[in-house]
Structures are given as structure tokens and as C-alpha cells.
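Why XRE family transcriptional regulator? Reviewers of the renewal asked for a concrete example.
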Amino acid sequence: MDNRDEVKVGISNTIRTLRFLHNEMTQKQLAEQIGVTRQTVMAIESNKYSPTLEVAFKIAEVFNLPLDKVFTYRSGK
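Here is what the prediction returned.
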């Protein structure tokens, strides 16, 4: 199996889509609502950084969704 066949493991999210569906909310607007920097939102959104549980819940709360509708986890098993 080469790298192209591997299933991506870890946490992924739908934040970019959710922002677009919520009046095209900017990363800065989301960051202000959850108390982090725009750079942090950008890193979470692009799966370069996993949010703390508290930040993950705050993001889900902004979109009025359960956590599992915003974030998913693949273990690779």
C-alpha cells in the first residue's frame, strides 16, 4: 500500500462549510466568538491543529450543532 491508498487518520472537521452556510462567516468572526486567534481557527480548519475539547465545544455551539456534526475522528483501524 502506498501513501495514496492510506486513509487519513485523526480529527477532521466541517468548519469551512459551516462558516459559509452561516452568512459566510469569516475566520476572524468565528475566532472572536470562541476566544482564539484567526490563525488558530485557520489551523484547526485546515486540520493542522487539533482543538482542545473546550474550543471544539465552543465551535459546535456557535453553529448550534452537536460536536460530532462538526468534528469526526478516524482511527485508521
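The two ends are 15 Å apart (CA to CA). This is the kind of structural detail the renewal will allow us to pursue systematically.
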